TrEMBL record, chain A:
This is D-aspartate oxidase. GO terms for biological process: D-amino acid catabolic process; L-aspartate catabolic process. Residues 1-19 form the signal peptide. Pfam families: DAO (PF01266). It is found in: Cytoplasm, Cytosol; Peroxisome matrix. The gene is Ddo. Selectively catalyzes the oxidative deamination of acidic amino acids. Suppresses the level of D-aspartate in the brain, an amino acid that can act as an agonist for glutamate receptors. Protects the organism from the toxicity of D-amino acids. May also function in the intestine. Its EC number is 1.4.3.1. Its cofactor is FAD.
UniProtKB/TrEMBL annotation, chain B:
One of its GO terms (biological process) is D-alanine catabolic process. Residues 2-329 form the FAD dependent oxidoreductase domain. This is D-amino-acid oxidase. It is found in: Cytoplasm, Cytosol; Peroxisome matrix; Presynaptic active zone; Secreted. It comes from Cochlearius cochlearius.
Length: 341, 347
């Protein structure tokens, strides 16, 4: 087979990192990223990019932990290199605080992040409404920098970026050997996945450079995540809402909730409001599929449905997707050899 | 009653505020005057990054440990207030790194969440095998000193731009008490061989991705002679110079090289940081802080002087505890002059 052609649909954190992994496992592959949105207009650009995993009810915990560990290790190395600032990766410490003691005292990822431990009484005094807390250090992927850095690395290895809306995967079957579906929330329409639904999140990105620690209310609804230039204040979790328009009432509510956790935020400047639709699913759809139409086959690898946890597991799922692409190509190789006989 | 404060760094201004807060209602005639040749942003305090952290060892100086704690608790109490941003006050977490195990510091229970570093965390810092993590406070003087000045001005305190050459110059004529907060140049008012400059140099860079302070320690080269990185609200301060007895306030190219190379080795990400400014200053180093009363006589002239200087590299860390102690000394002077009742309970 001539240099295999792989199309990656989607240019958010999943699409770009998956494309990168494919170039790593299959250097001879010709990879093209196709998307109607690129940074700074992807769902990933709205997210804070904190490495704090979301738990998928439908995926075994050991798999999720492996994905997270792989992602954390990968980013940890970048954060400690000269590329850190360009890639937008940095360490950040902070607190997860609970109004009532959580039923799960130790989350599955507590030994992957750094220095995880319960908060002391003195630390909890800063949060009078909260009775219990955990302190740890984790990583943050700032977007757009991280996505732009991925794009730069992809272009350096010859990957093409194509601004194109793919309405149907079959559009690609004549040009590509394998299609990788990293369309995120777009998969709802693209492949008609009814199990995929949006969970709308509104956030504020503000200037408050004195905020150096993250604070997250244990429920995950209210959070303060300091990035390189802006602090992300969140948030909302509105199931089945497809609206991308910022809601002013919500803005005030988010701001008030965050200020009650961190009063100094009252002095925050230059508030930007953003909305993203988390591509939510019981489990990440990470699998091969062979589509058939009139005797023609289309090899697809799905990698979407990461919901609130995209950044936390992106590298782990990207590597697994690249593996699946390898398997597809091996199968193609096998069948083309058979065809030659 | 007129009181002259000499010095407008963090020590002078906070002492003035503390005295005014505690005594202005007791002594209606109380008038405070600040005299200094340098005001913010040109004081030694302005050059400091502003991290609250005492030296590793208190050398048995329990008094200073208590003043440090008083300062931390006082600042912590202000964290949630609307003034915090204007004061330049915020929480910050970070690392202290060592090449060998060391005993816990006297301040381990003052800061928040003090703990040893895990092996995985130490992987971030090759060459260091032991360390601490804790959450402390930043108090940036380029904000704090203006904030103090505003509070003082609101209270009617007057400021004079003047280099004071002697205690006599500012006393007499109704000024009965002089507060000596002259820092490293206190020796010009009254010789003090124990007071020496601890010269430091820093490079200020733009590195907003750095969210933690990192202080390394080299027991052999001594405090502050090992690289440190302290992120502020706008700039990140890189340092690691301490030259005892060096009065030069010129930036040294050699020191620049030392700081830059050692900090970039510590944090490779800094290589891409943009350098914005370079500064050198003189820490007012002394074996212990001089915080005491003295009756100074010169011919007919006599004044009560309260000395409050010699805070080395921990002025910001200890300032409020010292201001309160100086205010107590002031209170005892008032009692002697029968100008006030017993000292106020501590605020």
């Amino acid at each position: 087979m001539a240099a295999p052609k792989v199309a990656v649909v989607g240019a958010g954190v999943i699409g770009l990192s998956t494309a990168l992994c494919i170039t790593e496992t299959c250097p001879s592959c010709s990879v093209t990223v196709l998307s109607d949105q690129f940074s700074p207009n992807t769902t990933s650009d709205v997210a804070a990019g904190m490495l704090i995993p979301h738990t998928y009810p439908g995926t075994p915990i050991n798999v999720q932990k492996q994905w997270f560990k792989e992602t954390f290790t990968y980013l940890f190395a970048i954060s400690n290199s000269a590329e850190a600032s360009e890639a937008g990766i940095h360490l950040v410490s902070g607190w997860q605080v609970f109004k009532t003691t959580p039923k799960e005292e130790l989350p599955f990822w507590s030994d992957v992040v750094l220095g995880f431990r319960p908060m002391s009484e003195a630390e909890l005094q800063k949060f009078p409404q909260h009775r219990f807390g955990q302190a740890f250090t984790t990583l943050k992927c700032d977007c757009p920098p991280y996505l732009l850095w991925l794009e730069k690395r992809l272009k350096a290895t010859g990957v093409q970026m194509c601004n194109r809306k793919v309405a149907d995967l079959w559009e690609l079957h004549s040009e590509y050997n394998v299609v990788v579906n990293c369309a995120g929330i777009g998969a709802h329409q693209l492949v008609g996945d009814e199990k995929l639904f949006p969970i709308r999140g509104q956030v504020l990105k503000v200037q408050a450079p004195w905020v150096k620690n993250f604070i997250r209310d244990g429920g995950g609804l209210t959070y303060i995540y300091p990035g390189i230039h802006r602090v992300t204040l969140g948030g909302t979790r509105e199931k089945e809402s497809w609206s991308l328009s910022p809601d002013p009432g919500t803005t005030k509510d988010i701001f008030d909730r965050c200020c009650s956790l961190e009063p100094s935020l009252r002095g925050a400047q230059d508030i930007e409001v953003k909305v993203g639709l988390r591509p939510s699913r019981r489990c990440v759809r990470l699998q091969r599929e062979v589509l058939s139409q009139g005797g023609v086959k289309l090899l697809v690898v799905h990698n979407y449905g990461h919901g609130a946890g995209g950044f936390s597991v992106h590298r782990g799922t990207a590597k697994e997707a690249a593996q699946l692409v390898e398997e597809c190509l091996a199968a193609l190789q096998g069948s083309s050899s058979r065809a030659k006989l | 009653m007129r009181v002259a404060i000499i010095g407008a760094g963090v020590i002078g201004l906070s002492t003035a505020l503390c005295i005014h807060e505690q005594y202005h209602s007791l002594v209606p005639s109380l008038e405070l005057e600040v005299y200094a040749d340098h005001y913010t942003p040109h004081t030694t305090s302005d050059g400091a990054a502003g991290l609250w952290q005492p030296y590793l060892s208190d050398h048995g100086n329990l008094q200073e440990t208590l003043w440090n704690k008083e300062t931390f608790d006082y600042l912590l109490g202000h964290l949630g207030s609307p003034a915090a941003k204007e004061m330049g006050l915020f929480l910050i977490s970070g690392y202290n790194l060592f090449t060998q195990p060391v005993p816990d510091p006297s301040w381990k229970n003052i800061v928040l969440g003090f703990r040893n570093l895990t092996p995985k965390e130490l992987e971030l810092f090759p060459g260091y095998s032991y360390g601490w993590f804790n959450t402390a406070l930043m108090l940036e003087c380029r904000s704090y000193l203006p904030w103090l000045s505003t509070r003082l001005t609101q209270r009617g305190v007057k400021f004079f731009h003047k280099k004071v050459e002697s205690f006599q110059e500012v006393s007499g004529d109704g000024v009965d008490v002089v507060i000596n907060c002259t820092g490293v140049r206190a020796g010009e008012l009254q010789p003090d061989p124990e007071l020496q400059p601890g010269r430091g140099q820093v490079i200020k860079v733009l590195a907003p991705w750095v969210k933690h302070f990192i202080i390394t320690h080299d027991i052999s080269s001594g405090i502050y002679n090992s690289p440190y990185v302290i992120p502020g609200s706008e700039f990140t301060v890189l340092g690691g110079i301490y030259q005892h007895g060096n009065w030069s306030q010129e930036n040294s190219a050699q020191d620049h090289k030392t700081i830059w190379e050692s900090c970039c080795r510590l944090l490779p990400a800094l290589q891409k940081a943009k350098i914005v400014q370079e500064w050198s200053g003189l820490r007012p180093a002394r074996p212990r802080v001089r915080l005491e009363r003295e009756t100074v006589r010169h011919g007919r002239f006599q004044a009560e002087v309260i000395h409050n200087y010699g805070h080395g590299g921990f002025g910001i860390t200890i300032h409020w505890g010292c201001a309160m102690a100086a205010a107590r000394l002031f209170g005892s002077i008032l009692q002697e002059k029968k100008l006030a009742g017993p000292p106020l309970p501590r605020l």
